[in-house]
Structure to design on (190 residues):
């Protein structure tokens, strides 16, 4: 008997949104759509939640009017991804996204502990592919901030960030889209 290939069902962003709107998923299920696959998001530990809140407060203090800091809300990447990053800084105000999720961000931040390899590889590729100019990983394992900047091969499955650096707790970092604002990495760490 020959070997059978396993087929998977990929979802478009529209498929996913129809399933969500139709109540297909349980309210407590935490899912996100990445490259057509439904990814189950891990439950948040208290250190992760604390780091998200610290990053939210810090980013709100340096990104002023004209920017919205969104916490664990969808970003709509065409055609088959709708991630829910821990934080996304988008242009505009909350009402600008009343009828549709934003399609881009000036900065995306993921807080990583157990998901560090996933955030470094798959999420970094996803965000570079979407042309996100800057992506940060608050690395709870090593107590540092990993900074990814300047996406290359945007739109390609080979997308990557041209610049990757690590900032330590005492270092100061200035976001690309907020040159007047800077933060101390320790302010992001629980």
């Amino acid at each position: 008997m020959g070997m059978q290939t396993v087929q998977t069902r990929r979802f478009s962003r529209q498929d996913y949104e129809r399933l969500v709107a139709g109540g297909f998923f349980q309210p407590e299920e935490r899912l996100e759509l990445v490259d057509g696959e439904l990814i189950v998001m891990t439950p948040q530990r208290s250190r992760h939640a604390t780091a998200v809140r610290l990053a939210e407060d810090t980013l709100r203090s340096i990104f002023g009017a004209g920017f919205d800091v969104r916490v664990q809300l969808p970003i709509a990447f065409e055609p088959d991804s709708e991630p829910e990053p821990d934080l996304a800084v988008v242009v505009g105000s909350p009402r600008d996204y009343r009828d549709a999720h934003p399609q881009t961000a000036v900065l995306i931040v993921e807080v990583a502990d157990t998901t560090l390899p996933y955030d470094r590889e798959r999420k970094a590729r996803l965000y570079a592919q979407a042309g996100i100019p800057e992506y940060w990983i608050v690395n709870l394992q090593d107590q540092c901030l990993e900074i990814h900047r300047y996406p290359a091969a945007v739109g390609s499955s080979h997308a990557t960030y041209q610049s990757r650096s690590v900032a330590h707790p005492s270092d100061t970092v200035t976001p690309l889209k907020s040159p007047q604002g800077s933060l101390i990495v320790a302010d992001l760490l629980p």
